[in-house]
TrEMBL record:
Cofactor(s) this protein requires: [4Fe-4S] cluster
Alphabetized PANTHER family for the sequence: ANAEROBIC RIBONUCLEOSIDE-TRIPHOSPHATE REDUCTASE-ACTIVATING PROTEIN (PTHR30352:SF2), PYRUVATE FORMATE-LYASE-ACTIVATING ENZYME (PTHR30352)
EC number assigned by the record: 1.97.1.-
Gene3D superfamilies documented for this protein: Aldolase class I (3.20.20.70)
InterPro entries linked: Aldolase_TIM, NrdG, Organic_radical-activating, rSAM, rSAM_sf
Protein name: Anaerobic ribonucleoside-triphosphate reductase-activating protein
Role this protein plays: Activation of anaerobic ribonucleoside-triphosphate reductase under anaerobic conditions by generation of an organic free radical, using S-adenosylmethionine and reduced flavodoxin as cosubstrates to produce 5'-deoxy-adenosine.
Origin superkingdom: Bacteria
KW Iron (keyword) present: yes
Record-level Gene Ontology MF annotations: 4 iron, 4 sulfur cluster binding; [formate-C-acetyltransferase]-activating enzyme activity; lyase activity; metal ion binding; ribonucleoside-diphosphate reductase activity, thioredoxin disulfide as acceptor
Key words, A-Z: 4Fe-4S, Iron, Iron-sulfur, Lyase, Metal-binding, Oxidoreductase, Pyruvate, S-adenosyl-L-methionine
Classification lineage: Bacteria, Bacillati, Bacillota, Clostridia, Peptostreptococcales
Family: Belongs to the organic radical-activating enzymes family.
Length: 171
């Protein structure tokens, strides 16, 4: 299986979630938020393809990492490939953060044609930062988010409780 990336996998990030992280920048985003800091990741025809196995090999080689972060683009545009990658990352005791322009409610909507694939990926994620970037709500002082409307969600607790639970460490 292949995945489309916007750039090489970045290791040793300290801004894309807590601790030392490996970041996977996916290519392709339907939201095209005004003021997005990654507009080069929007075009579905740009970027480059790599095999999921190659991404997994890179993740297995990282040392001292707390986790991986899925960003982009929008990771939920490539849920099948990322779900495989996340499952392998979990075997290495890495936590998973994901940034998406979709809201938790949109992902959970059973009427959405992508619902099943999105839920499969969501089940592999520990923390979700959801919501489109809104330039008028930009705040450089909030942790791990670009705009005040975005939420940091404890995915495991939210799925168990069948409702959104903010992550208590980042409220």
């Amino acid at each position: 299986m292949k995945i489309k990336l916007a750039s090489d996998i970045v290791t040793d990030s300290i801004v894309d979630g807590p601790g030392l992280r490996t970041v996977i920048w996916t290519q392709g985003c339907k939201h095209k938020c005004k003021g997005c800091h990654n507009p080069q990741t929007h075009d579905f025809n740009s970027g480059f393809e790599v095999s999921v196995d190659d991404v997994i090999k890179k993740i297995r080689k990282v040392k001292l990492q707390r986790g991986i972060t899925l960003s982009g683009g929008d990771p939920f545009e490539q849920p099948e490939a990322l779900s495989i990658i996340c499952k392998e990352a979990k075997k290495n005791n890495l936590d998973i953060w994901a940034y998406t322009g979709y809201t938790f409610e949109e992902i959970m909507n059973q009427n959405n044609p992508n619902h099943k694939k999105w839920i499969t990926l969501l089940e592999d994620i520990d923390v979700l930062v959801d919501g489109r970037f809104i330039e008028d709500k930009k705040d450089i002082f909030i942790k791990f988010r670009g705009s005040k409307n975005q939420r940091i969600i404890d995915v495991k607790k939210s799925l168990i409780n069948k409702k959104l639970i903010p992550h208590s460490d980042y409220i």
